[in-house]
Write a structure and sequence with these properties.
Elements: H1 3-18, H2 28-39, E1 43-47, E2 50-53, H3 54-57, H4 65-76, E3 81-82, H5 84-90, E4 103-107, E5 114-116, E6 119-123, E7 129-132, E8 135-138, H6 140-150, H7 153-166, H8 171-182, H9 188-197, H10 205-216, E9 223-229, E10 237-245, E11 251-256, H11 260-263, H12 268-272, H13 278-296, E12 302-306, H14 308-311, H15 314-323
Parallel strand pairs: 4-6, 11-12
Antiparallel strand pairs: 1-2, 3-4, 5-6, 7-8, 9-10, 10-11
Length: about 325
């Protein structure tokens, strides 16, 4: 293939990077040229037909990559209306990155629906469409309800919490949205249960998932973002992730460690973190966590810490909470059942 043509492809890749997009070639020759670069390890194809330089794509945070894919697809297919988890991502909600591996688009009732590769087509009737950064998406209300109906409980609670947090809703108003937009649709009972647990005080997707796991395993739902004094500086206070008052009067603080509670989810918190390197964030977080625990133990009876890996392991997470006498209020079960 002529060298000049390859240089032209390289320039187009760089131009797209400057716009926060991937390159979506429209000719077979350009696609083949990009795939030659893929074979050489210079270019990657994160989504079929979309390309980026490997050196660039490696620098894009996991929580930001779905935005770039959706925006690029919107430019390539301006008639597409994005829905479900893809629309939730564009609305700035906390969507776990595994749910965004596929792209969800809305189609009319007479159009074929289903999954083709990583494109999922949903039949949606009379959807209200709005544009976010030029991308057509289903309305916020419809998007949230669709996600709560279809996601697993932990992922759905992360979306529900971010919805009530970012739009200043209450659990009751979210339940009303479910009745308005999904009462007679599949998954309505699942959405109702999730909306009933929604809490705007949850500050990250990971914290929401941890609380959902506590609920699934039958543990008492903790209070969130409780204010505790800083014994070394009376002018400042701590806000803890979780807080339980035990039957014997003891007070236990729960803290979720690690960066995954931010980096595995889209939303404003994930975007805010991309200014620091992973190493800088990890070291800073470790120092903060140790300082917090040393001061929190002076104003409570115990600090239970856990990671994202812990909460996803039923036996390990239950053992951790049992060790601190967190009460069980029901038998372990999935709220979807």
């Amino acid at each position: 293939m002529p060298r000049g043509f390859m240089h032209h492809i390289d320039r187009l890749l760089l131009d797209c990077e400057k716009k926060g997009l991937l390159f979506a070639p429209t000719t077979q020759s350009a696609i083949e040229a990009c795939r030659r670069r893929v074979a050489q390890g210079i270019v990657v194809e994160p989504f079929r037909g979309l390309f980026a330089r490997d050196a660039y794509w490696e620098t894009v945070k996991a929580a930001v990559k779905p935005y770039q894919i959706i925006r690029t697809l919107s430019y390539a297919h301006p008639q597409w209306v994005f829905c479900s988890f893809s629309a939730a991502c564009m609305h700035g909600l906390s969507v776990s990155t595994p749910l965004l591996r596929s792209v969800h688009i809305a189609v009319g009732p007479s159009t074929h629906s289903g999954t083709s590769g990583r494109i999922v087509r949903h039949k949606i009737v009379r959807s209200r469409v709005r544009r976010i950064f030029g991308v057509p998406v289903t309305s916020f209300d419809e998007t949230v309800v669709d996600c709560l109906r279809s996601a697993d409980f932990p992922s759905a609670l992360a979306i529900a919490d971010s919805a009530v947090r970012t739009h200043r809703l209450t659990s009751s108003s979210l339940q009303n949205l479910v009745e308005r937009h999904g009462a007679r649709k599949q998954g309505a009972s699942r959405a109702r249960r999730c909306a009933a647990y929604a809490d705007a005080r949850s500050e990250s997707g990971g914290e929401s998932v941890a609380r959902a796991r506590m609920i699934e395993l039958g543990f008492a739902v903790p209070d969130l973002q409780v204010k505790l004094p800083n014994v070394l500086d009376r002018k400042r206070s701590f806000y803890v992730d979780y807080y339980w008052t035990l039957p014997d009067g003891k007070h236990i603080v729960g803290e979720m460690d690690g960066l995954e509670k931010y980096t595995m989810f889209t939303g404003s918190h994930a975007a805010a973190m991309k200014q620091q390197s992973a190493r800088q964030r990890a070291l800073a977080a470790l120092v903060r966590e140790r300082q917090r625990e040393s001061r929190l133990t002076a104003v409570c009876d115990g600090v239970v810490r856990f990671t994202y890996a812990d909460i996803m392991d039923d036996e390990r997470f239950s053992s951790i909470l049992d060790a601190y006498s967190i009460p069980r209020v029901r038998e372990p079960r999935c709220p979807d059942s």
